[in-house]
Write a structure and sequence with these properties.
homodimer; alpha/beta; Aldehyde Dehydrogenase, Chain A, domain 1; 2 domains; four-stranded parallel beta sheet
Chain lengths: 417, 417
């Protein structure tokens, strides 16, 4: 597949999407389960292909953290297989009647959930995305049109070959999974401009990839954006609960988008709360930077710049601000929020209700860790990313977000007068 | 407002959106009803402002059909007022709990409907769009950030001034309606690139406007696209019903996107059906063009080119094709469909079910006219356009399509392990 032209792949994607759109759930689930089995049976070859990619990355002087994301081993392939089996166990969203009613003239109007068609996924070095994204696309009746990075090409070719074999074994078109073998930047640009082919483009990667999409894409896309997530500790908060939540939100996995980056504390409890939470955080290796009022309480920490409050560190670092009241807390969060996940710790019903209504984010969390904002934790079963835009999908994107709807109208000869 | 810079308007749009997002339904409805009253009370001034636009367009040699769309009179202002009152009577989508459940760890997860925020509308010469779009945006809690054409500027300024006054009278920010007074192309480009300001852009206009958006927009948008709509008459169709539907779909209002442009007929009934339906259509002034097989039955009609089958005429012209069977009918429709509205006339359950499943369009209609695919006719109350894309909105866009959702998560101190 690596030598096929983008035009040829695009044509085949559209053709396969017509078949997949009306495929039975049983066939799609069989393909997912075959994929899981075949990934495990071919684990040796996949790891071998991956080792070529890893060796090339190492000799190119790639950063160890990037190589870690690129590397596959038996455990990671097992995770990929488990993920596909979990998707097979989810309910099929296609065909669900979302809404229906009868018009005064007798027309029956239904809105029925249908696949998007061709879902384009453009991603960086993690080869597991090949299997994770393809599994979700398939279950929702979509063709997965994949464009991974050049650094992971051998891994992605090996994985997609297995997935295509599984589709064929289930009686479905192998072209339900298509990997773009030409990993040049020019082809990436052409890929994001395949209007009439790609119904939805999902980028999985960093700021440079998102910027490329915003500049060049002419197909519809959903951005998986940054998470500059706040925890606001209200004056009425249970301070023990607040400590646990702040430490968990910051430290349980600092490199992910739902990790907290900023702590906002009500002035009335800052004197009591900041010393204890900062000692917890420092114990976990967190570097704190703060505004003037927090530094008056914690003299050891450095001053936070304006830029700090706007930064998603994705590391053991956290900005701290002290605010006069709920209004100031909401203003601060609204000002610096990236619209991902924002939390309040409070025992005051009015404060909770105002925070929930007035903070505009994909998820607003009351008295729990921001780390729960994730497809699995919120009950979606699996996710293909977390949208920080408001159009089409907001928050974790699961199977439903990989579908559209169509109107179906039944009459008995009605005409419009 | 006409002299304010785009940056200033953008800043004010974002500020007003925070207030409108949490405004009570009663206040929003009051603003809509005040708007209707004030439009009628100021009808004289609005018509006067409009006559300036019309006079300028006439001396610029603008086509009469364009001037007709530009012109306002008492009846059109009454329609605008009626439209605003109808929107006031619709249910408020904001705050609706779309879905909710409890996770095994006790977290309560809800998805709540929220406004999009700032909705950008960029449109051509119809000044009624100023009022229609603003009304729907307001009811859904959004700021209407409007950029009309230079030809309609005086009309749009007069209408938006009235709407702003009504917002103030209802205790809401006047900046809930903002009209861009600088109608240069350069400002239009800047407008569609207001990332972080415009949450959703809706173009209302022709192909040139859509092409500009696709090329330059960096904000999320929903395209109101073409309707190359088909009526397929199956061999099992009630031919009298099929005649009525074809004639209604083609001739009841040929200039709109849900009018039929192409007739596809099963070969088994073509000999009987085509002569009668063509005589009906010709009586209504319709020019037919056909493929070889239809011309064997209707020798008087001209040959249809490949381009004809792909053309949305928006006029009294229709292409005709004869097909061997349902498969060929579906293939033909899928090949030329613009994804708007496609109809089948049949009495065969299996044919109806296959057509509904396999034709990928915003609306699939069985035994009724394509002309019903419209927000009002399908029960949405009002529409801001008809989306032919699959992301976010598909088919008529009503109030719901002017909203997003947010996750709200309630805990009692849960942390992620």
């Amino acid at each position: 597949m690596s030598r096929d032209s983008l035009e040829d792949l695009a044509r085949r994607a559209v053709a396969a999407s017509r078949v997949l759109a009306i495929a039975r759930t049983a066939a799609k689930d069989a393909a997912l389960l075959h994929s899981a089995d075949l990934l495990l049976m071919n684990a040796g070859e996949i790891v071998e292909a991956n080792s070529t990619d890893v060796a090339a990355a190492e000799s190119a002087g790639t950063a160890p953290s990037v190589i870690d994301r690129l590397r596959l081993d038996g455990a990671r392939i097992q995770q990929m297989a488990d993920g596909l089996r979990a998707v097979a166990a989810l309910a099929d969203p296609v065909g669900q009647v979302v809404e229906g009613h009868v018009r005064p003239n007798g027309l029956v109007v239904e809105r029925v959930r249908v696949p998007l068609g061709v879902v384009g996924v453009i991603y960086e070095n993690r080869p597991n995305v090949t299997s994770d994204a393809a599994g979700l696309c398939l279950k929702a009746g979509n063709v997965a049109f994949l464009r991974g990075s050049s650094a992971a090409l051998q891994s992605n070719l090996a994985i997609s070959a297995v997935l295509r074999q599984a589709l064929g074994k289930a009686g479905l078109p192998e072209d339900g999974v298509l990997l773009v073998g030409d990993t040049s930047h020019e082809t990436a640009r052409q890929f994001v401009q395949l209007r009439g082919v790609i119904d939805c483009l999902i980028p999985r990667g960093g700021a440079a990839l998102v910027a490329m999409i915003r500049e060049h894409a002419t197909v519809p896309y959903v951005i998986d954006g940054d998470g500059n997530c706040h925890v606001y500790v209200d004056r009425s908060a249970d301070l023990d609960m607040a400590r646990r939540i702040v430490v968990n939100a910051k430290t349980s996995r600092p490199s992910v988008c739902n990790a907290a980056e900023s702590l906002v504390v009500h002035a009335e409890i800052a004197d009591r709360f900041l010393p204890v939470v900062s000692s917890d955080l420092v114990e976990h290796g967190v570097e704190l930077v703060g505004d003037e009022r927090s530094r008056a309480i914690l003299p050891a920490i450095a001053a936070a710049t304006e830029e700090d409050f706007g930064t998603e560190y994705l590391a053991l670092k956290m900005s701290v601000a002290v605010v006069d009241d709920l209004d100031a807390a909401i203003d601060h969060v609204v000002r610096y929020s990236s619209g991902h996940s924002e939390a309040i710790v409070t025992s005051d019903l009015g404060a909770a209700r105002r925070f929930v209504r007035e903070v505009d984010a994909a998820a607003v969390v009351v008295n729990a860790s921001t780390r729960f904002v994730d497809g699995g934790e919120l009950g979606l079963g699996a996710e293909v990313g977390i949208s920080t835009q408001k159009l089409h999908a907001r928050g974790p994107m699961g199977l439903t977000e990989l579908t559209s709807v169509k109107y179906v109208v039944y009459g008995e000869g009605q005409i419009r007068t």
